[in-house]
Amino acid sequence: MIRDATAQAARLTAARALVEDILVPAEAQMDAEDRMPDAARAALRAHGLFGLSIPEAQGGLGLTMEEEAGLMLVLGRTAPAYRAVYALNSGGAAQILLRAGTEAQRARWLPGLARGDLIACFCLSEAEAGSDAAALQTTARRDGDGWRLTGRKRWVTNAPEAGMLMVMARTGGAGARGISAFAIDPNTPGVSVQPTQQKMGMRGAQVADIVFEDVAVPADALVGAEGDGLKLALAGLDKVRLHLAALSAGLMERLIDEGRRHALARRQFGKPLAEQPVIAALLADCVAEALAARCMALELARARDDGTLRPADAAAAKLFATEALGRVADRVLQVHGGEGYMVGSAVERLYRDVRLLRILDGTSDIQRMVVARGLLG
Ligand SMILES: Cc1cc2nc3c(=O)[nH]c(=O)nc-3n(C[C@H](O)[C@H](O)[C@H](O)COP(=O)(O)OP(=O)(O)OC[C@H]3O[C@@H](n4cnc5c(N)ncnc54)[C@H](O)[C@@H]3O)c2cc1C
């Protein structure tokens, strides 16, 4: 649903300028330093992107899913590490607060997240709980009115700059029903951020482990009912998956531009590569897949807005778009030949970056399971 076509058109025009004038020129620096340049961060804040779907009442843009998907098609045309920093603020943590938080919890966290003053971290995965999130072992045990948290969360995006933590911890027995959600201040004694391995891409969106050592957590940090944590975390996945499908379509379009530019400029055998039918066919396949992902993302975003989205369809869109993105990145690197393999080219960077999208927020295999369950029961 587009609430105001003129406002959406203005948003897209502003986003195109942001991508071309600020974000793309800063990509190489961000990759080299593994840190988002200050000017880029300031521009993302000025455009309100930390508050994409946080309601306007809490200082966000309050975008519908169709508006957000349209915007991500544009914002996808640059390094996805930017998105990993700003979009997580309106992602899992904010969605849980919006779905189940009290007025006081929303008032405490959402305005800071929407402005980008606070950075949200979503703390679900652990060493023994990846795809099987229900196996997590971090525990929260009752202590008077409040709780004591102990455990280690692995590979938490944005952990080094965390301003709020949405932590899934076990408050009851084994399995999904024993897990609760807590909104925690990372400055609480006993919380520490610990370095982890280097990533192959997505540099600029830093990842670290977060350790909880007998951390005293007040009663009002529990979000939603005890035992509802994993249900709440999973309830936001349709939205994330459509967001990633749109992002992937935007990334494909960027890669196609890179491939087109190179194919027209590079001459071999006395003519531009673009005149070799094999090269033209590689790029044509990319165009078809990017278009399919774009259409899926927009169509399903409208379905989510009108309440008819099926979870299996959101999973299918994420599966198709991220897998197609992998194929497109591979073909476009091939079109670049050796230059595409050399460190420092945009294609080399994007090739490393986009690989993560087939792993995050449910790997492709997990999406296939969801799609198959929708079909077969
Ligand atoms: C850079 C990065 C950032 C991350 N950021 C966060 C974050 O901010 N917060 C957070 O909580 N987590 C985060 N994660 C963790 C991420 O969510 C997990 O990596 C992901 O869920 C997959 O889990 P895993 O890596 O343990 O793989 P595993 O679950 O061990 O899976 C390994 C392989 O087996 C396959 N597989 C597993 N189970 C099945 C099955 N039943 N059927 C078929 N195939 C199966 C998987 O598809 C995969 O190919 C991050 C990870 C990375 C790499």
Automatic annotation (TrEMBL):
Annotated ranges, domain Acyl-CoA oxidase/dehydrogenase middle: 121-215
Species annotation: Neoroseomonas lacus
PANTHER family found in the cross-reference section: ACYL-COA DEHYDROGENASE, ISOVALERYL-COA DEHYDROGENASE, MITOCHONDRIAL-RELATED
GO biological process: branched-chain amino acid catabolic process
Domain of life: Bacteria
Record Pfam families: Acyl-CoA_dh_1, Acyl-CoA_dh_M, Acyl-CoA_dh_N
Keywords: Branched-chain amino acid catabolism, FAD, Flavoprotein, Oxidoreductase
Name of the protein in its database record: Acyl-CoA dehydrogenase
Family stated for the protein in its record: Belongs to the acyl-CoA dehydrogenase family.
Cofactors (names): FAD
Positions of the Acyl-CoA dehydrogenase/oxidase C-terminal domain: 227-376
